[in-house]
Amino acid sequence: MNNPATGTPKKILYIENLRIVLSVLVVIVHVACTYGGPGGWSYTEEGADLRTVLPLTALNATSQSFFMGMFFLFGAYFTHLSFQKKGFWKFVKDRFFRLGIPLIITYFLISPFTSWIVWPVKHPEEANISFMELWLRGNRFGVGVMWFAEALIYFSILYIIARLVFPGLKDREKLNLPKIKSGHILMTSLLLGFITFLARFEFPLFSGGHGTNFNLGHFPQYIFLFALGIIAAGYKFDRIVSYRQARHWLWFSLGMIFIAFPLLFFIGGAQEGAIHAYFGGATWHALGFSVWEQTTGIAIMAALIGFFKAKWNHQRKSAKALSNSAYALYVFHPPVIVWVCIQFRDWEVLHLIKFLAVAPIALMASYSVALLVKRMPLLKHIF
Fold it and tell me: Residue 196: which domain range?
């Protein structure tokens, strides 16, 4: 897959395979939001009980701890390589082509179309409203999931400025990466967790964008990983995490997910409705969750990079098709999964069961649309 952040043709196959997993997780998380998982989404169903809320909260919190951060890490890595290869003007052109155009399409078409699909459910008195009528009202425009592309545009501008200020970012021969010990990774994640805790005093989770399209409570990690990706591009990236380290981080992350998270959830009284204490502010809940999120997320990233580099650094035809369509999947999945979920809204069953049944259908439908987009003469060059 050409990197959506850069359009660079160079491929690192285990990163391409990781993008498949990350893009699939985006779809799964948004289906989980529909049925009781935390996070803002276009269409949600009420009535989820603790049997659904706990596992879907664990799923979404775990996914959020690493998947978007990895997108920023890889986006930064290929940003640096793309600028070095193409130079300023071609780099800027690619930014517009790969980020700007999809952002415009999402703002003016995909977001309003998603709203139109869900409109009869939320506003039954206007069940027969046409898409054009709703579009002309102009209040359903939005960047939606493409806040990521908007952020990458801003980060790219900062990167260009940084190249002018720091000559070390310019072209040079790649160096061997200094050995990264597990203790370095752990201390970095703990520090990042504390910085995230401080940031959420001002920007609590789910508190709105504060005049932006972003959930700023997550941005300490995104900023750090983007900077790390730029730095890593100057080194031989394949030495960043060993397979042996990856196994250790896998066990660590499993303990954080299946032991630490339930303890944090129940001891803090989240099951009794005290969920907002975790979102930010001067509470031990917010500190504990911020540290849990960053240590878990960094551990999962280390495990995934190490495992994929050692075991999945190749592609067959099917994997190549999936990775080539991953960006289209990310951009076009919102209206698809909203439509699929609405088809099952009258199915009266435990929300967790509905999630387990609907998520694979929504994923297959979304990938079908993505594969179709990749066959369209004009769109295939953008996505």
Answer: 13-381
